[in-house]
Specification:
Layout lengths: L3 E5 L4 H13 L3 E8 L2 E9 L14 E5 L2 H14 L26 H5 L20 H10 L16 H14 L3 H13 L4 E2 L9 E2 L33 H4 L2 H5 L7 E3 L1 H12 L3 E2 L2 E2 L3 H4 L5 E7 L4 E6 L3 E3 L2 E5 L5 E5 L4 E7 L12 H13 L1
Parallel strand pairs: 4-6
Antiparallel strand pairs: 1-3, 2-3, 2-15, 4-7, 5-7, 8-9, 10-11, 12-13, 13-14, 14-15
Helix pairs in contact: 1-11, 2-5, 4-5
């Protein structure tokens, strides 16, 4: 089933063609969406929601987007900052007093958002089950010393990003970041995106499909550095079978366990690319969006093993900002063009075995529509 369904402005026909080509080649099921000036110009989907290709991918199908969730968590922090409830230049300990332990009294909120806090690893050896214990993880992070002087280096905070920002949101609002996002972002926008997934939505889920020739034991891992060696990982080994489990869906792991489709990811992210408002709903002031694309750090990322530009919450790539998830999902925004592009799929690709340009093919097709 390579037929692509949904809406597409004629100017963005290349996006439809790109998604059809992906479904004919690598993808099992997928969705792509483009917003310009806060309005949808492409909302497309096709293929299958299951590996056996028996269940069609529908308009409201959801998929796990893994680290693409970080975009949504960062937005929550920027909303609080824009409201004056969170100072990006304040110490984390101003909101979370226990965090001042082990030399972190001067570690700033912006350091956490820009992956420069020096806390890329969870405290001590952990299992997947340990990730489900919010209070234990956050208490461990509060007691842990940074690996480097905060702000002087960057290292992708793959899992800790969500706990750190999430605990700040909880300390300020009394709500978990998933609840804050649902009430302050998803509900006002009408966005079908969820941090953690309820049992009521399980029937809409398209489980992740392991990369070709691999099984659901396939695990997330940091890429090798420039010298070919890997950074030691004492944290949880997260496999596809874990990310597809009921326990994972019900847990609070806000760096990685978001669920949505391209429409919902693009809708939420377009708040920032469109300078604070979408479809008549304003969530931030124009000035409150600027940290999303203003560079905080440029240099080699100690975890990713590659040069990176980090803003306050996002990766920066030329004129665009955003981030992608393990396996292939992606959302990026261009504030100059006021355009946001998202791609969400269930077929994962292992970048060490196969080049994965799927999301970028959708992005480039969208740019061709701008003329």
């Amino acid at each position: 089933m390579n037929d692509v369904r949904g809406f597409c402005d004629p100017r963005f026909a290349a996006v439809r063609e790109a998604l059809a080509a992906l479904l004919a080649k690598d993808d099992v099921g997928a969705s792509a969406a483009v917003y310009v000036n806060g309005e949808p110009v492409a909302d497309l989907w096709g293929g299958y929601a299951d590996e056996r290709r028996t269940v069609a991918w529908e308009r409201d199908t959801l998929a796990a987007v893994n680290s693409t969730t970080k975009n949504m968590v960062a937005l929550c922090a920027l909303i609080l900052a824009d409201r004056g409830e969170l100072d990006l230049s304040a110490p984390v300990a101003a909101y979370w007093p226990e965090f001042a332990a082990a030399g972190k009294e001067n570690l700033l909120v912006r350091h956490v958002l820009s992956h420069t806090a020096g806390l890329p690893d969870l405290p001590g050896p952990t299992t997947v089950e340990d990730l489900y214990a919010w209070e234990d993880v956050t208490a461990g992070l509060a007691a842990q010393p940074p690996e480097w002087e905060p702000g002087t280096a960057a290292g992708y905070h793959a899992l800790t990003f969500g706990y750190l920002i999430g605990e700040l949101v909880r300390r300020i609002t009394g709500r978990g970041v998933g609840a804050f996002f649902a009430e302050e972002v998803a509900e006002p926008l009408g966005a079908d995106f969820h941090i953690g997934l309820s049992a009521d939505d399980d029937h809409r889920l398209a489980p992740l499909v392991p990369p070709p020739s691999l099984t659901d034991e396939y695990a997330a891992d940091a890429p090798p550095g420039p010298d070919g060696t890997r950074r030691e990982n004492t944290g949880a080994v997260i496999r596809v079978k874990d990310a597809n489990s009921v326990a994972w869906r019900r847990a609070r792991i806000p760096a990685v366990n978001g669920y949505g489709n391209a429409r919902s990811a693009a809708l939420v992210h377009s708040v920032l690319a469109n300078h604070g408002s979408v479809g008549g709903v304003r969530l931030l002031s124009p000035g409150g969006c600027e940290p999303a694309w203003r560079e905080e750090f440029r240099g080699d990322d100690r975890v990713l093993g590659t040069p990176m530009s980090w803003t306050t919450g996002f990766g920066r790539f030329g004129n665009t900002f955003g981030w992608g998830g393990w396996g292939g999902s992606l959302v990026v925004g261009d504030p100059g063009a006021r355009m946001t592009v998202a791609y969400v799929m269930n077929q994962m690709i292992d970048r060490e075995r196969q080049t994965d340009d799927r999301g970028m093919e959708i992005v480039m097709a969208a740019y061709s529509g701008l003329g």
